Amino acid sequence: MNIYSERIDKLREKMREVGADAIIVPTSDAHNSEYVGDHDQIRRWLSGFTGSNGTLVVTKDEALLWTDGRYFIQCAAEIAGSGIQMMKMGEKDVPRISEYIASLMEDREELTLSFDGRVMTAFEINTLVEKVDETKSLKLLYNDDLAGELWLSLDERPKRSCERVKLLDMGFSGLSATDKISQVREAMEAKKCNQLFISKLDDIMWLFNLRGGDVECNPVALSYAFISQDEAFIFLQKDAVSEAVRAYLASQRIIICDYEDVYEFLKDYPYEGKTYADLREISHLAYQCIIDGNGDKDSIVNGMNPTTELKAVKNDTEIKNMREYFLRDSAAMTEYIYWLKKRAKEMASGGEVLTEVEAAAKCDELRKAVEGNLGLSFPTIAAYGSNAAMMHYEATEESYAICKPEGMILTDCGGQYPGATTDVTRTVALGPVSDEEKTNFTLVLKGWLSLMNAQWIDGCTGRNLDILARGPLWAKGIDYKCGTGHGVGCYLNVHEGPQNIRWKYIEGSSEAVLKAGMTVTDEPGVYVDGKYGIRTENTLLVEDRCDTADGHFLGFENLTWVPIDMDLVVTKLLSADEINSLNNYHNEVIKRLGDRVSDEVIQYLQMLII
Ligand SMILES: [Mn+2]
Predict the structure, then answer these.
(1) First CA to last CA across the chain, in angstroms?
(2) Ligand 1 centroid – CA 206 distance (Å)
C-alpha cells in the first residue's frame, strides 16, 4: 500500500465517523487566491499530486482527481499506486465535479457531502447544489475540515503564513483609506446595500492601503473586510499587526478584528437591510454565516466587489509611479535580452551551454538589483524551444532544457515595486531559426503593434479590441488558445480584473468597458505543440484621447520599453506604417532607457532601427 492510499483510507474512516458519503478536497485557500500557500495544500498532501490545479473527490469506493491538460502526464506519474484515478478536465466523456456528484445520487434518495466550507466558494457550492435533482436530498457538511484534521494528526501541517502587514505610503496610494471607503459606501448605496463583505485579498489591501507577504508573489496579507455605512472592520492575524499599522488604522477609524473571528462576527452582526458580497469570491461558510445572521437567504446581493472596479482605475499618483518603475524594470529586462544575445553568440563559438535555469536566474538577478524592487510578480518562465509551446511551463532544478545556439527562448517575467507590478514577455533567437518561426513571430508582432496603437470609441470592452491582436494570425488560420491580455495591479497581483482583452464570451466571467487609468497587457502569441512558442507582451495603460462630434475616444499609453529581437522579424511582411511604428518604438526605448542601461546595450538598441 502506498502512503497516499493509506491516507485516503484514513480519510474514509473519518468520513464514516461523521456519516459523509463523499468529500471534496480542492486546491484553494479561504480567499480564492491564485497561488495557494503550503498550509492549504491539503490535496497535495493527500494525493501526492503536486500540480497547481487539482480537486480530489473521495467516496466509499472511489478516489478521483480532476486536473487540466497541463498536468496529465505529471499527475499520472505522481498518483501511480495510490489507487486514485485521474479525471482529465475538458476531455469528452469526463464529467464535471458537479455532474459526478449528481450522478452519485442517481440511484439513491440522499447523499451527505463533506467539504471545508472555508475554502470552497459560495458560487462553487451553489452550482453543485443546482445540478442535483430537486426531489432528492443533498446534505452538506461544511463545518469540519476532515482532511486538514487528518493532516494534523498524522503529519506536520505547515503553519498558515503570518507575515507582518505593511503600510502603503500616500506617495504610492494617492488616496487615503478613508477616501476609498467613502467611494465604496457610495457604490454600496447605489446597490441599496447597507453592508459589504470582502474576502478578496488584493481588494482589501487596496482599500486599506496595506500590503502583506502571505501569498507567493502577491503582496497581500490574509484578511477580510466588512464595511457598513458607518463602520469599517478589517480582520487580520494578531501577530501580523505592528503598532504602526494599529495606529494608522485607528487614525482612519478602521476597527481591527482577529482573523479567526470572522465567521462568528458574520453570524452575530446586527444587520440592517441587505448585504453585498461577491459569491464567486467569498467562501461557502461566510455565505452561510451571513444568511444565518440575517435569517434570510434573500438578504445577500451578489455582484462584483465595488473595490475591484475602483482599484482597476489607477489614480494620478499610481500612474506617475508606474511610469517610473516600468522604466526601471524595462532597463533590467533590456540588459537581460542583450545578455541572452551575447550568451548565444558565446555558445555558438564553443562557449559554455546555456540552460533555462541559468537564463531565469540571470533575469531574476538583474530584476532584483533594480532600485526599489520587492521581488517577482510571478515565477519567471524561461522556456526554450518546444517548452515555450506550453503556456505555463516552468523550468525547475530537477527538470530543465539545455539551450542550443539555434531556435528561440521565451522569457515571461515581472517584478513587484512599491509603485508598480510589471509583466513582460520577449521571445529571442539564440541562433538560426526556421522561416516558419520568423513568419509567425512577425505576425505576432503585427498584432501586438496594432493593439498597442489602437484608438477606439468610449464603450468598448476588450472583446471589441481582441481582433486587432489576433487578426494577422487568424488571416493565416492560426490562433492562440488564451486571452490576449489581462489587467495588472499596482504593487498588487499581476492578474487583476475586471477588464481584459479576449474575443470569447465566457458566461459569468468578468468583462468591463475600458476606462482611462486601467492597465491591460498586450500579449498575442503562437504555440506549436512539440516545436516552439512565441509571445510578445507589453503592459499598456488606457488613456483619454479626444472628443469629436462623434464621441469620446480612448487609446493606450505604453508602459513597457523593452526591445523586439529584430533577428526574428521578416521586414517584407510589415507595412510602411508598421515599420514606422516599430522604429518609433525602438527610438523611444533608446531615449527612455538612455541613462539607465550600459553603453553596449545602447549600441545594440541602435542596430534595431531599420
Ligand atoms: Mn501577462
Answers:
(1) 65
(2) 21
| Residues 136, 137, 142: CA angle, nearest 5 degrees | 150
What is the crossing angle of helices 576-593 and 316-348, to 10°?
100
Query: How far, in Å, is the centroid of ligand 1 from the Cα of 378?
Result: 10
In sequence order, what are the beta bridge partners of 24?
57
Interval 97-148: pLDDT, tens:
999 999 999 888 999 999 999 999 999 999 999 988 888 899 999 999 999 9
Q: How far apart are CA 234 and CA 595, in angstroms?
A: 44
| 258: β partners | 236
**What is the DSSP code string of 55-118?**
EEEEESS-EEEEE-GGGHHHHHHHHTTTT-EEEETTSTT---HHHHHHHHTTT-SEEEEE--TT
CA 424–ligand 1 middle distance (angstroms): 7
What is the distance in A from the centroid of ligand 1 to the CA of 339? 22
Tell me the CA–centroid distance for residue 101 and ligand 1, in Å.
35
Cβ 433 vs Cβ 420: under 8 Å? no
Residue indicated by cell numbers 466558494:
121
Q: How far is the CA of 469 from the centre of ligand 1 (A)?
A: 14
If you measure from the C-alpha of residue 391 to the centroid of ligand 1, how many angstroms do you get, rounded to a whole number? Answer: 11
Alpha helices per DSSP H over 453-512? 462-474
pTM value surpassing 0.90: yes
Whole-number Å distance, alpha carbon 401 to ligand 1 midpoint, is 23
For residue 526, report the distance from its CA to the centre of ligand 1, in Å: 15
Characterize the bridge pairing of strands 166-167 and 63-67: unpaired
Burial class (CB in 10 A: 0-12, 13-18, 19+), 114: buried
pLDDT in tens, 348-397: 999 999 999 999 999 999 999 999 999 999 999 999 999 998 877 778 77
Helix, strand or coil, per DSSP, at residue 116: coil
Q: Mark out the alpha helices in 269-350 (DSSP H runs).
A: 284-294, 306-312, 316-348
